[in-house]
Design a protein that fits this description.
mainly beta, about 50% strand, 5-stranded antiparallel β-sheet, SH3b domain-containing protein
């Protein structure tokens, strides 16, 4: 997919993060990066982020912000810079604090995201926080935080490879347990370089729902998709809540049979964080 089209997609759908490289990696202009404007409502993507007085990693720390903290963009500093192999901008943001008035300071762009879910992800009756952001090496990083656990022991994470090696976009949604029988995070991604994409369902699993333990973010089901006319491969997903089953109907146009659409229905059973294919009855 052309970089210009990805940027257009980003502007049209603000619930997307973008990080992709093309051309000479030594040139800052070779990177496509999410750009946030004054007034944008975002969240802190990482736990214990330092809000600083200046655009410098050694600058004075005004506050330490936890994962999922809401922030409002005040301004973006130019030009872009490279920090620890990540190309991005510094942003002045106003952050809400649990105790005390809002505080304004600077954070690097890779620490911000519009993608956050607050929900009971493990069925223990207490809400977790989940965020999605892009790493410097073009991975999609999913983080889940247990707010009640001690610092440095409360965040679980999982990295997902983008379809292409040079990055792309990430989008986050949530499926409630009342619909699927189990709470699910859904991450979708488009490649920067080609027409492939994917949709992955994730579970957050804590053994025996123990409230004093950190769980694991697990890849439950991965669905590959493709839009490359005349070839189009898509999936329509539904759920059987009581059985904790997912039904995926693949619509494959032009790939298996030129000029024709082939539909394939597959049923998956969720258990211990993973969907497994249910064999067809003979």
């Amino acid at each position: 997919m052309a970089p210009a089209l990805l940027l257009t997609l980003l502007l049209a759908q603000p619930k997307i993060v973008l990080y992709a490289g093309h051309g000479d990696p030594h040139e800052l202009s070779s990177f496509d990066v999410s750009t946030w404007e004054p007034g944008h409502k975002l969240f802190i993507a990482v736990d214990q982020v330092s809000l600083r007085t200046e655009p410098d990693e050694q600058a004075t720390v005004l506050a330490s912000l936890s994962l999922g903290t809401p922030v409002t963009v005040k301004r973006r500093l130019e030009p872009r810079v490279r920090l620890l192999d990540r190309v991005d901008s510094w942003y002045e943001v106003e952050a809400k604090q649990e105790d005390g008035p809002p505080v304004t300071g600077l954070v690097f762009g890779n620490l911000l995201t519009p993608l956050r879910v607050e929900a009971d992800l493990d069925g223990d009756g207490e809400k977790e926080l989940a965020t999605v952001a892009m790493t410097a090496d073009f991975k999609i990083r999913v983080r889940v935080m247990e707010p009640a656990l001690p610092l440095n022991q409360r965040v679980a994470s999982l990295d997902l490879r983008t379809v292409g090696a040079t990055g792309g976009t990430a989008k986050l949604s949530y499926v409630d347990a009342r619909k699927a029988g189990v709470a699910l995070l859904v991450v979708e991604s488009l490649s920067e370089a080609d027409v492939r994409s994917f949709k992955v369902f994730l579970s957050y699993v804590v053994p025996e729902h123990q409230k004093d333990r950190l769980g694991a973010v697990m890849e439950s089901l991965f669905l590959h998709e493709r839009v490359d006319p005349p070839v189009v491969v898509r999936h329509k997903v539904s759920f059987q809540r009581k059985q904790r089953r997912l039904i995926a109907v693949e619509s494959n146009k032009g790939e298996l049979k030129p000029g024709k659409t082939v539909k394939t229905r597959r049923v998956y059973q969720w258990r211990d964080g993973v969907y497994t294919l249910v064999p067809k009855k003979r």
